[in-house]
Every structure is written in structure tokens, then in C-alpha cells.
Amino acid sequence: MLVCGENLQTVTIKVSQRVVRIVEDMVRLGIARSRNHAYNMIIEAGLPKVMELIERKRRVEELTEKFLREGLPYRELPTVEDVEEARGR
Length: 89
What we know:
Helix content is 63%, strand content 0%. The protein has helices at 17-28, 35-45, 47-70, 80-88. The radius of gyration is 21 Å and the shape is elongated. The N and C termini lie far apart (52 Å). The model has no long low-confidence stretch (mean pLDDT 88).
């Protein structure tokens, strides 16, 4: 990926609205530190790889929100006491 301290040059490009939305998602989800960083990631890693990262982050967010709202789906897991008791046998 982009190495800090590289000689960078400013360029102006036109991109599709789809790419703009992808870049905004990358920044919002914390995949990239800035839009500039996001564009550089897309250029270096390729759009398919970036889309994979976005989908993974979205899924994590969805599951986190669901677990916070509904609790973890594992209701019948053993407690620490249960595990300690089983080890003592």
C-alpha cells in the first residue's frame, strides 16, 4: 500500500458517482484515513479488493448493531463457573 513519505504529485481526475460513493464508504467505515488515502488504495489494490473490504466492514457493523440491539445469539453457553467446575472433575 501507500508508503508515507513517498513523493506524491497532485492530479485531477473525474470518476463516476459509484467510485465517489465507494470512497465515502471507505472513509466512513474507517478503511481509509481520508478520501485521498481511499483513492490511492483503490489505485493500488484495485476496485474489487476494496469492494471486498467494504462488504466485510458493513457486515461487521450490521452484526454489531444486531448484537447490541438483541444481545448475543448464544444464550445457553456455559458460564465461567461451569467451565471451572467441569475442569475440576
